[in-house]
Amino acid sequence: MGETTTGATEGRRRNLARLLRLVHVDGPLSRASLTEATGLNRSTIADLVGELARDGLVVERAPDPSRRVGRPSPLVVASADVVAVAVNPEVDAVTIGAVALDRGIRARERIEVDHLVTSEEVSELVADTVRRWRRSMLRGCQVVGVGLAVPGLVRAADGLVRNAPHLLWRDTPLRELVESATSLPATVGNDASLGALAEHLFGAARGVDDVVYLNGGASGIGGGVIVHGMPVTGAGGYAGEFGQNRPGIASEGDRRVEHGVLEDEVSRARLLRAVGLEHADEPTLAEALATSDDPSAADEVARQRRILSTALANAVNVLNPSVVILGGFLATLASPDLPGLSAEVAAQAMGASAEGLDIRVASLGEDRLLMGAAESVFAALIADPAV
């Protein structure tokens, strides 16, 4: 009897998780659609949706009035009031957002800094922001945790920041610091790996099983890899450090740093200097590059594109992805002539490896890292919403 009860309970937990994941990833779905997607009967779906609604994880809305055939089925929607706080500390700013379970961005702040922030400063910034938001735009919301997207090596086992070289963080217990400051559970991951996850679930790589993602930020270039639909993290969680590779540079005139790595040569800071800016978000930088009439700015863009194309060709040869996604300032580099960049990559890659290759820019824009960080928080909730 006990074993039967336990089995039924576990089965119910799995079904609750399936439903919550479906409405979180796919968006609003009717009960009829959930019945079709899961193979469960209508009464079971109604019961499960009722439990998720009582727990505040989903809401039911009136059906689409345009549907006139048969009895209309209510829409089940992930709650906009269940929120994860997402944080991306960088060398020039700390970006903090509140991402809802329905994938809406409830709040966002970019806090520019004139010095390298410490992990303790970031923890206090997050705590202060959460307290302030709870009195205003997050009033009445259930804040379920804090996710941090860090530009550096993060140990998968416990979230220890082993090395964030541009922030000068080494063996930093960021998770414990944030949990202590906020009294909320926290998760920590590499920013580019989390960006890859977000683009795979919700963005330009949605539905694609073999993906290479490169993110360009103020701290350099990181990456993420999806193989057969699963993130590849490596033994310790450090996979995807494309920025530390040394690409071949065909022309010595293109080299700026002797023995430099990719992120020394393909650099956001160099692009900012080329247009006379010290700080800028990605839309501002993209606009400045697009409108600049300085030939040296165009030359710098072209130089960085040549080196980037070689680095991408190396990745294509090793991993044979069907899609390469570029985010951050790499998307800014690629966007003006994406077919041209694709042709440069294909010309340097093995022919078979580059067959059918599609290079895309990240479609989630500046939301990609916040959504990835939030997803690391939501993962536990979605896996077992009955807790």
Describe the structure.
This is ROK family transcriptional regulator. Belongs to the ROK (NagC/XylR) family. InterPro entries: ATPase_NBD, ROK, WH-like_DNA-bd_sf, WH_DNA-bd_sf. With 387 residues, the protein is α/β, with parallel strands linked by helices. It folds into three domains: 2-78, Orthogonal Bundle (Arc Repressor Mutant, subunit A); 82-194 and 368-383, ATPase, nucleotide binding domain (Nucleotidyltransferase, domain 5), CATH 3.30.420; 204-363, Nucleotidyltransferase, domain 5 (2-Layer Sandwich), CATH 3.30.420.40. Helices cover 43% and strands 22% of the residues. It is built from 14 helices and 16 strands. It has helices at 2-26, 31-38, 42-54, 119-134, 174-182, 191-202, 262-265, 268-274, 282-291, 295-319, 329-334, 338-348, 351-354, 368-383; strands spanning 29-30, 58-61, 75-78, 82-89, 93-100, 105-112, 142-150, 153-154, 161-164, 169-172, 186-190, 211-217, 220-227, 230-232, 323-328, 358-361. The strands form four sheets. The protein has a five-stranded mixed sheet, with helices on both faces. A hairpin with a 3-residue loop joins strand 4 (82-89) and strand 5. Helix 2 packs across helix 3 (42-54) and helix 4 packs parallel to helix 5. The longest helix is centred in the first third of the chain and has 25 residues, at 2-26. The protein is globular and about 70 Å long.
Question: Percent helix among the residues?
Answer: 40-55%
Whole-angstrom Rg:
22 Å
The CATH homologous superfamily name of the largest domain equals ATPase, nucleotide binding domain
Stated plainly, the CATH topology of the largest domain is called Nucleotidyltransferase, domain 5
Write out the strand line-up for the largest beta sheet, numbering strands in chain order: 6-5-4-7-11
Biggest sheet character: 5 strands, mixed
CATH architecture of the largest domain: 2-Layer Sandwich
How many alpha or pi helices? 14
Record field, number of beta strands: 16
Count of spatially separate domains: 3
- Proportion in β-strands: 15-25%
CATH uppermost class of the largest domain: Alpha Beta
Chain-averaged pLDDT:
94
**Could you list the spans in which at least 5 consecutive residues all have pLDDT below 50?**
none
Shape: globular
Which H/E pattern describes the elements? HEHHEEEEEHEEEEHEHEEEHHHHEHHHEH
Give the structural class.
Answer: alpha/beta
How far the N terminus sits from the C terminus, by CA atoms, comes to 22 Å
Protein name: ROK family transcriptional regulator
Pfam families: ROK (PF00480)
Family: Belongs to the ROK (NagC/XylR) family.
